[in-house]
Specification:
heterodimer; A: alpha+beta; 3-stranded antiparallel β-sheet; 6 helices; B: two-stranded antiparallel sheet; 2 helices
Amino acid sequence: MREALIVFFALMLAFFLVTHYTPQAEYYEYKGKLRAYRLYAELESIEPRALIYARYKVDSFLYSMNNTACNVLPKIDGNEFREMIASDLSNKAFFPSIDLSFEAFETRGGEKGYFGEKCRNGGIGFTAKGKVGIEDGLTGIKGERNIDAMGCGITAYYRMKRMLDWLERDIKNAVSKCSLEGELSTSKYNLSAFFSCLKEAVAEIRKEYASDLELKINYSYFYWFEDEKPRVYLHLYITLKDPYALIIAKGREYKGFVCLREMEIGS
Amino acid sequence: MRLLLALLISVFLLLFVFLKPIFIHQGYQVEWKEEAALKALARVKELGYKLLMNVTVKECSSSEIAYCLMIPGPNGFLKVEVSEKRGGG
């Protein structure tokens, strides 16, 4: 009788546990918690991911501009970011609303980026600003973040571009000054005076633009006579190198960045 | 002897009820998955631009005990796994 009672109570307890203790319900509770964690991770990582994307775009731009004239300014199109994030979140059963805009600007030096990077004078800075919201399609949990973050790359691209523009202007002025001083356009031509003036002017320009960037100015020429007056054709090559530049492209780091400008001047 | 047998049957019955939920209990897996999601967030912040250097993978499934964060740009996933011994990452 006592034994039967023990088994009966055990059966009753087991029945109670089976009917009232529902691991499935607890599973959904856990699942809901997991969704909340995942939503938090997705939402909280939007800001750093937006900056990583911006840096990717800037560095891809720099990679394509290396060894060119550097006369284009960088732009960051945010469409790809929105599309990729939205597609991934949809696959995870989240409903995103992404209103982010990206902008590139010139850094002054001394600013600090989101990841602790120090910005350089004349470098490319980038911002991600806007609002991002994510709703969980399974539990209905919602989250929103206001994004306002800044990052930068170390390559002094803006400064290099500006310097090259000024160099072109200054070299043109120097050539025209030397043409007049050497009276190249008159019959009292003096070619050696012209070239000596040009050499001095280029040396002066090199000194004036001395900085942490490496500048090289080379030129070639030929001359001929028209009505006994000398005519000179100059081909100038300006090479500006940023030895501290660092570009991440195609999955690896590239050090150094070079801009090249060519000028043709006929007098 | 009969008492012992009755006790054994009772314990077996209760164990059967208790063990079944433990086997099917997914709370453990869920905890690891939560950890993976939080680790993924921490690693994005920690790695920063280094994520642009072949750290991402092209294929990733968050249904495993792992979490995959999409990294736009290189368009890959940062995959963070948490092993059952809690040593992974």
